[in-house]
Amino acid sequence: MIIEPHTISPDATGIQALEIMTTKNFTGLPVTENGGKLLGIITMRDLRYEKNLHFKIQKLMTQKKGFGNSRGWN
Prior knowledge:
This protein is an alpha+beta fold and about 70 residues long. It has one domain (about 15-65): CBS-domain, CATH 3.10.580. Helices cover about 20% and strands about 20% of the residues. It contains two helices and three strands; from the N terminus they run αββαβ. The longest helix is centred in the N-terminal third of the chain and has 11 residues, at about 15-25. It is globular and about 35 Å long. About 10% of the residues are buried.
């Protein structure tokens, strides 16, 4: 279990997400509200074919309802 995962804000840009993922060698980042409530996930696959990465993450992220098991979600 990861105790303190790296996360990103829904207001961050695709450029910021890409920079974190390439620097840390991650393939995805949890998108959270103030580092707390999980809203979704953004992955390298989401960013792969985007030509303009100046958008906010919230426009491209997979929302919480779209992945995983709903049990245990707050």
